[in-house]
Design brief:
Rossmann fold, globular, 385 residues, alpha/beta
C-alpha cells in the first residue's frame, strides 16, 4: 500500500467500554495504531454500547464512526445492528481507499462487506475464527445469502492458523482463492518487574462456556494447598458463566481466595497482567487469543490448552506451559510459581512477544496485503462476483 491509498476503514461488530466483543476490536485498534505510525489514516466503524446516547468520535486516538447498537433478535452479537449504519454503509465504504472487515456472521460486518463489493472498493476480510462450519440454522442462512459471496469476492481473506483456513474452505465449499496467513501482533511493552507478594493468578477473558472460567476456579484448591496465601482473579465481562463461577467459588469455600472483578478496560487488563505471577486461559479451540499475547508482551508466563492457537509458540519458547486439559492447570501453575522457572518463563514470554508477534512485522505484512488488494482491484474489479 502506498501513500496514494491512505484511508482504511476497519469495520468491527461492537465497541464497548467493557470490551464485550473481545479480541477482534483489540486487533483492529492495534492495526490502526500501527497504520497511523506509518502515515496512513485508519478509521473505525462499529456499533457502540455503554456510552450513552452520543458515542465517542474516537477510540484510543483512532477516529471512529460508532452507531448506538439496537437489538433486533435475541441472538447474542448476531442479533444487534443499527439502521443508521446500514443506511449509510455504501457512503461509508466509498469514502475509503480500502475496507478491512473483521468479519462475523452478524448484521454489521456482513452488510459492510457486501457494500464494499457493490461499490468496487478493495476489500480485506479477517475472521478471527468467527466464521467456521456450523449446523445452526441462522449460520446456514447467512452463509447462503452473504458469507460465501464475500469470502469469494474479497481481495484477501486473512487467517491465523491452518485450522482456521480449513474451516473457511469448508464454509465456502472449495479452497479459498484469496487466503493469506497473518498472525496477530501486540504492541511492544516494557517487561514487568518480578511481582512481589503472594502468588497472584489471573484469568482475563469473557466469561463464556468455551473459555472455561470454571476450570480456572476448579484449579485453585490444588494450588492453595502449596501456596495458601495465593490469590485468584477472574476478570472479564459476563457472557453467561458468571453465576456458575460464583456458585463454584462458594461450593469450594474460596470466597477469600478468588475474586471476580468484572469487565476491565484495556489499560486495566495490562495492569492486572503486570501484577500477575501467572496468566491462565483454559479455553478450548481458541484461535489466537489477544489476552495471551498481551500477557506475553509484559513478560507474564501463560498457561494454555493444547487446542489454543498459540500453544506451539508458548511451548517451543518456554513462555509458559501447555496442558492437555483442565486437570493439568494447577500443576502447570505450580511449576511456574517456582522461582527459577518463573524467571526463565517470564524472559521467554517477553522475548517471544517482541519477536514473533511484533506489531512492526504484522503491519509490514498487512501493508503488503493492502497493496496487492488495491492492485488487484485496479486490474479488474468489474469481474468480481
Amino acid at each position: 500500500m502506498t501513500a496514494a491509498f491512505p484511508r482504511v476503514l476497519h469495520a468491527v461488530t461492537l465497541h464497548s467500554p467493557t470490551g464485550a466483543f473481545g479480541g477482534p476490536v483489540r486487533v483492529a485498534l492495534n492495526l490502526a495504531h500501527g497504520l497511523r505510525e506509518r502515515g496512513h489514516h485508519p478509521r473505525l466503524l462499529a456499533l457502540a454500547d455503554g456510552f450513552g446516547p452520543v458515542p465517542p468520535t474516537e477510540v484510543e486516538g483512532v477516529p471512529a464512526r460508532l452507531y448506538p447498537a439496537r437489538r433486533l433478535l435475541p441472538l447474542g452479537f448476531s442479533g444487534i445492528t443499527s439502521p443508521a449504519l446500514l443506511a449509510r454503509a455504501g457512503r461509508l465504504v466509498r469514502g475509503a481507499d480500502l475496507v478491512h472487515v473483521h468479519l462475523a456472521r452478524d448484521l454489521v460486518t456482513l452488510p459492510v462487506a457486501l457494500a464494499a463489493l457493490r461499490a468496487g472498493v478493495p476489500l480485506v476480510l479477517q475472521t478471527h475464527g468467527m466464521v467456521d462450519p456450523s449446523d445452526r440454522f441462522l449460520a446456514r442462512v447467512l452463509d447462503a445469502l452473504a458469507v460465501r459471496r464475500v469470502l469469494r469476492g474479497a481481495d484477501a481473506v486473512l487467517h491465523l492458523t491452518a485450522h482456521e483456513r480449513r474451516g473457511l474452505d469448508a464454509v465456502l465449499g472449495s479452497p479459498l482463492p484469496n487466503a493469506v496467513r497473518l498472525v496477530n501482533g501486540v504492541p511492544r511493552q516494557e517487561a514487568r518487574p518480578a511481582p512481589e507478594g503472594p502468588p497472584r493468578i489471573l484469568y482475563a477473558a469473557r466469561l463464556q462456556a468455551r473459555k472455561r472460567p470454571c476450570d480456572f476456579v476448579a484449579a485453585a484448591p490444588e494450588v492453595l494447598r502449596r501456596h495458601p496465601d495465593a490469590r485468584f482473579v477472574v476478570a472479564g465481562p459476563d457472557e453467561g458463566e458468571l453465576p456458575a463461577v460464583r456458585a463454584l467459588i462458594d461450593r469450594l469455600g474460596l470466597r477469600e481466595r478468588v475474586v471476580c472483578v468484572g469487565a476491565l478496560g484495556s489499560a486495566q487488563v495490562l495492569d492486572e497482567l503486570r501484577r500477575a505471577h501467572v496468566y491462565v486461559l483454559p479455553s478450548v479451540d481458541e484461535p489466537f487469543p489477544m489476552s495471551v499475547l498481551e500477557s506475553l508482551s509484559v513478560g507474564t508466563p501463560a498457561v494454555v490448552t493444547g487446542s489454543n492457537g498459540l500453544a506451539s509458540a508458548v511451548r517451543e519458547a518456554g513462555a509458559g506451559r501447555v496442558v492437555a486439559d483442565a486437570s493439568g492447570l494447577a500443576g502447570a501453575v505450580l511449576e511456574l510459581l517456582e522461582p527459577e522457572a518463573a524467571v526463565k518463563a517470564s524472559a521467554a514470554a517477553h522475548a517471544l512477544a517482541g519477536s514473533a508477534f511484533s506489531m512492526d512485522a504484522v503491519v509490514d505484512g498487512l501493508l503488503a496485503v493492502y497493496g496487492r488488494a488495491v492492485a488487484r482491484g485496479a486490474g479488474g474489479r468489474a469481474q468480481r462476483p
